[in-house]
Amino acid sequence: MRELCSIVLPRNLVVVDLGCSLGENTFIFVFEVINAMSDHSLEVQFFLNDLPGNDFNYIFRSLESFKKMVAVEHKGGTLPPFYVAGLPGSYYTRLFPSQSVHLFHSSYCLHWRSQLPGELDVNAKTYLNKGNIYIANTTLLSVVKLYQQLFQMDLLLFLKLRYEELVFGGQMVLTFLGRKNEDVYKGDLNHLCGLLALSIQSLVQKVQ
After folding, report:
1. pTM
2. Which of helix, strand or coil describes residue 108?
3. What is the pLDDT along the chain (208 residues), one digit of tens a residue?
4. Which family does it belong to (predicted)?
5. Could you tell me the maximum CA-CA distance found in the chain, to the nearest angstrom?
């Protein structure tokens, strides 16, 4: 954070967490930035972004207790003035004016696609990836290719949009899942999605 400030020399700092979700993890990144900026005079504006279906009201209700926790952790030390706002919307769309953000952060969110591949019509009589919610052992190689193409398109779009929104010298910190094995049918994410698909199918069968 200090390196970023020395490069950009902003009057105030705009920091965005993309895919903030809700719960205990939501404020971890905010807390780390505040710690890094302690004893600094810059004002920090945080934007917590997620899809409109996220429970932003829960986040806002948690703000006061978070601020009290920050004050206790710093034991009366000087804190940067900071402000937190919610920003509903997909990070596969433009979210900010051009060159207005100093730091983007996203943790374990970019494996979520913007949509299903267009060729996977869930209403079709024969669904090409039946019984699966992602790539699993029974997924056709043609379907795997569709997901790979969509991932490339989504990631390129994401980087293009963030490039337009970052100030000159701004930075991004991105953490997302990768694959250790070239075999697309192996990996922790595939196993996790397979278990999740089985759980969802079990719930559907009970409802039926």
Report:
1. 0.86
2. coil
3. 556 555 555 678 999 999 999 888 899 999 999 988 877 778 999 999 999 999 999 999 999 999 999 888 877 677 889 999 999 999 999 999 999 999 999 999 998 889 988 888 777 667 788 877 788 778 889 998 999 999 999 999 999 999 999 999 899 999 988 777 777 777 777 777 778 878 887 887 777 6
4. Belongs to the methyltransferase superfamily. Type-7 methyltransferase family. SABATH subfamily.
5. 64
